[in-house]
Design brief:
This protein is mainly alpha-helical and 77 residues long. Helix content is 88%, strand content 0%.
Length: 77
């Protein structure tokens, strides 16, 4: 449940960053793109880090179970 919330927050951060970037480019002195991307990219990365880590862990666990089941099936034959 927490992972879905964090994914939603990351999506909102991306949307907000895009809107702020568009507004910043319309200013008389455009914003520094590199600093902007680093700042907002870090926020998005922080929101995505937990769900991605959780997803990778679940994938590794599933692959380990499949491998273990394959070995058990091969040994019982």
């Amino acid at each position: 449940m927490e992972q879905r919330f964090l994914l939603a927050m990351a999506g909102l951060q991306v949307q907000q960053a895009y809107q702020l970037y568009q507004l910043g480019m319309d200013l008389p002195v455009p914003i520094n793109t590199v600093e902007f991307v680093m700042l907002h990219g870090l926020q998005v990365a922080l929101h995505l880090s937990i769900p991605l880590t959780y997803g990778v862990r679940k994938l590794v666990d599933r692959l380990a179970v499949k491998e273990q089941n394959g070995k058990e099936t091969g040994q019982s034959s």
